Amino acid sequence: MAELVVALDVAEAEQGIALAQSLQGTAPWVKIGLELFTLGGAGIVAACKSMGFKVFLDLKFYDIPNTVAGAVSAAASMGVDMLTLHTQGGETMCRAARTACQQCATKPLLFGVTVLTSMADGDLPAHKGNLGQLAVSLAQGAERWGLDGVVCSGHEVQRIKQASPNLLCLTPGIRPAGSAVGDQKRVMTPQQAVAAGSDFLVIGRPITRHEHPAQAAQAIMHSMS
Ligand code: C5P
Cβ(224)–Cβ(4) under 8 Å? Predict the structure, then answer.
């Protein structure tokens, strides 16, 4: 059964806390990304954990292996349940992150970003080919390097699961029918992503910009079951 992760992408730390409070008892997961973590740091993680959420820290690490390993240990020490790095950082970086995770008392799930869902063919300067195919081959690397899962668009989930059935798939770029796409390009509805086999659906603006975020989250969860 796929799980909903609500992306708390807001411009003030207090707003992030208030949004999380309004979602208590609905979605099991919240995602703290670059914006909210830059604003609120470890305090935001602690606040969401104390509200009972599982926390996905989505900072998409991409640096030299030693630095990424240190960042993974630091994230794990805050008690996050899931975190991300870029698979395009390569094998040595991903394996260093894996080793750092294994040495932590808490063992967060480690997900590798394949290709951002805001990108379409032609958007990645160094890659002229099909981005879906690139995502599938990066996912195969992620599995070999010991990651728990990958971040990919719903359009790649079936091909990734065929090649790597044990790899978890987390899909952003989810838009309920009729909602604004914004900067996302490779999008799917929640129902389509679940049918494709996605394990986690990350959804931000269709919930956070809704007049009643908890109601929007509930409606999406209902459509996922
Ligand atoms: O508002 P929206 O539903 O587009 O939010 C999607 C969330 O998923 C954002 O927080 C974004 O950073 C994240 N994300 C993404 N594409 C990826 C990885 C993460 O959109 N490949």
Answer: yes
